[in-house]
Structure formats: C-alpha cells, structure tokens
Amino acid sequence: MNIKKRAFTMVELMIVIGIIGMMVVMLSWQILASRGQKKAEIRTVDLYNARRAMQSVVEEIRNTTGVQAVGEKNIEYRSGDDSEIYNILFDNGELKKVYADNFEEKVIATLDNFSVKLEGDNQNVIHVELSAGEVNLKTGIYIRKN
C-alpha cells in the first residue's frame, strides 16, 4: 500500500500568509481611522459644551444688577431682567442655573470642572475657569457688587 500524502508547497504557504497579512493591515487601518474620528467627535462635543457654558455664565453675569456672593463653585446674583436672585452652580458634573425662590434647576451644560474666584482691587472681577474633556476655557468678568 502506497499512500501518497500531499502537502502545501512553500510558495502556496507564502501566498496564503501574504493574503492574511494584507487583510490584517487593511482591518487595522480601518480601526485606527475610526478611532481618530471618534476622538474628533468627542472633542467637538466638549468644545460645544464648554463654549455654551462660558457664554451662559458671561451673559448671566453681565445682565445682573449686582453679584450677591461668589463661592468656589457657584455665583449668586440678582438678575437685571426680573430682579430675582439666582445661582449658577456646579454640581455632579453639571453647570446649573437655580432659581432662589423655588429652587427650580435648569442645566446649562455638562462639564468636568468649573471654578470661580473674585479678584481685583475691589473684588470686582470674577475669574471663571471651566473644562470639558480636553477643552479648557478661562475668562475674567468685571462686575458690579451690591
């Protein structure tokens, strides 16, 4: 009994390995490209949240009849629109506007960090710093204090 065993030749093996290698390269290229696109989308959302939060804080403070108090994570002020007292505060990753009368909350933005401090000769400048992801924004707002 003479049984002939047939095996792959070295050339056939090299061709199969080459095809598998090209498929791995194409797949990894697609994975890296989608990962980069996802990071860009996250940065865009972070930039939008940070910009919207800073714009809201600046508009609220500029439209006051006076700032009542400034804490490390909040600003209490009297609105120029309706003379009501409001708070802008940072709590559990959310920047909120809170109405002092009924404690109704309105979420302004989702952030990683928010801090405020008073500076200036007469404590009349509020420095606001906030961050969302890799986006960090800082500004100073001149205020009228009661």
Structure commentary:
It is built from one helix and eight strands; from the N terminus they run αββββββββ. With 146 residues, the protein is an alpha+beta fold. The protein has one domain (39-142). The chain has a five-stranded antiparallel sheet, with helices on one face. The chain has a three-stranded antiparallel sheet with strand order 6-7-8, with helices on one face. The longest helix is centred in the first third of the chain and has 53 residues, at 10-62. The protein is rod-shaped.
What distance lies between the first and last C-alpha atoms, to the nearest angstrom? 109 Å
Question: How much helix, percentage-wise, in residues?
Answer: 25-40%
- The best one-word shape is rod-shaped
Percentage of residues in DSSP E strands = 35-45%
Number of domains: 1
Number of helices: 1
Order of SSEs: HEEEEEEEE
Kindly state the mean pLDDT as a whole number? 83
For the secondary structure, the number of strands is: 8
Alpha carbon gyration radius: 29 Å
Task: Describe the structure concisely for a colleague.
By secondary structure, this protein is an alpha+beta fold. 36% of the residues lie in helices and 38% in strands.
